[in-house]
Design a protein that fits this description.
Order of helices and strands: HHHH
Distance between the termini: 57 Å
Number of helices: 4
Structural class: mainly alpha
Number of strands: 0
């Protein structure tokens, strides 16, 4: 019985660790989108320039640019 309680404890810890990791990744993604939007709007960079500065794909920049009117 004691072994199953310990397994349950470790299972819960793994679930919590995964949730924290996912939340941190989402936060990094949101910050990256914010930087890309600022490069486009405030500096007027092209898709290629923005992708180069932000070190992301041009496809991601194009996707963000296409949705700018929804965010502004």
């Amino acid at each position: 019985m004691h072994g199953s309680g310990l397994k349950h404890k470790w299972d819960n810890k793994n679930v919590l660790d995964y949730a924290v990791s996912a939340a941190e990744a989402k936060g990094r993604e949101e910050e990256q989108v914010k930087v890309i939007k600022n490069l486009i709007v405030q500096l007027g960079l092209s898709d290629e320039q923005t992708a180069g500065v932000a070190e992301v794909s041009i496809d991601l920049v194009k996707k963000i640019r296409a949705n700018l009117d929804k965010w502004i």
